[in-house]
Amino acid sequence: MRRALPGVFPDGDIDLRDGGIADDLLEIGLTSVWGSLWDREGLSPRDRSLVTLSILIALGAESEMRTHFAIGRTNGLTDDEISELIYHAAGYTGFPAATAARNAARAALDS
């Protein structure tokens, strides 16, 4: 995840637990999703970003979208490609989901 979000996490081991309910969730996500899925061969990081963003838009997962729009840019997606992704998603997920994606992208990318 450090490669996907440069400068966000300090080097070395970090404890992501906050002592609240389900505080192992982030650790589980890092090891199973980032450690297992994102490191697989077969799709480039750029392609994984396109797939992930498409799924998140369909789910309406705005907080995750914000993170993944930033990751998508790190993985080589241009602002024009992100816009096209949102436009394309509107045809399949509906206007409200696409509007939520646009708002998440603007918040994440300061655009």
UniProtKB/TrEMBL annotation:
Protein name (database record): Carboxymuconolactone decarboxylase-like domain-containing protein
Recorded GO MF terms: peroxiredoxin activity
InterPro entries linked to this entry: 4CMD/NDH-1_regulator (IPR052512), AhpD-like (IPR029032), CMD-like (IPR003779)
Domain of life: Bacteria
Domain Carboxymuconolactone decarboxylase-like: 34-106
